[in-house]
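Subject: Protein record for review, amino acid sequence with backbone structure tokens
Concerning: The relation between a protein's sequence and the shape of its backbone.
How to read it: Take the token row as a discrete description of the fold.
Enclosed: The protein record, placed directly beneath this head.
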Amino acid sequence: MAGSDIRAALGTDAPLALLSAAIVGLLYCLASFLFFRRPVAETAVGAMASSYANANNIGIPVSLYAVGTAQHVAPVLLVQLLVLAPFYLTVLSLASGSKVSWKRVLLQPFASPMIIASGLGVVVALTGWTAPDLLQKPIDMLAGGAVPMVLLAFGLSLAGRAPLQKGDGRVETLVATFLKIAGMPLVVWVLGRFVFGLDGQHLLASVIMAALPTAQNVFLFATPYGRGMSVARDVILCTTVLSIGALLVVAWLV
């Protein structure tokens, strides 16, 4: 986040990421209301799984390879960590019976280490400040261990139970997977091309961000509440496998 040109990307990328995530999330909620009849908490996890992309771990290297820059990743991370994550966490808290005051809702974004770190990264990017080595080196060490720890936690969730079991929300998983891999890239292409007037590499980068698999953060967010964990886990697994083909199709068509 700190190394991205946020000013150059916030103009269209952040609104496009927010609008597309909202549309896809609402589509999943509509499917849940009409067909699945799942409780609010499970529906929220499924909606998040269908629209919350792995923009950091996978998005940065894919974007660098495809379009030569990772500046389009920062707005997606901003939207997800500063808007989508607080919103879905609040819904999960309310649906789980926890008493949530306005004060807690407003302060919740500042209680997550990931959200705090993203906010600090934005400040650094906007001010142009360079952290001294004494501070930067420990941060780099923590960053180096973040991805393995997330993958380890996700891998542990797969042990002892095969994915796509009938009693684990198989239909919900397939719908969320379809929305994330096929629906969201299509929504972003339509909005980017005809609403925001994007073309060329900018449009390609936006659609690539949309075709990324679901982030492991969705499973981590669902775990403390014990709701929708199987769907989150299976959607992450399915979209990670299928995103390889989805990204190739996006690169070919767009």
About this structure: The radius of gyration is 18 Å. The CA atoms of residues 8 and 215 lie 25 Å apart.
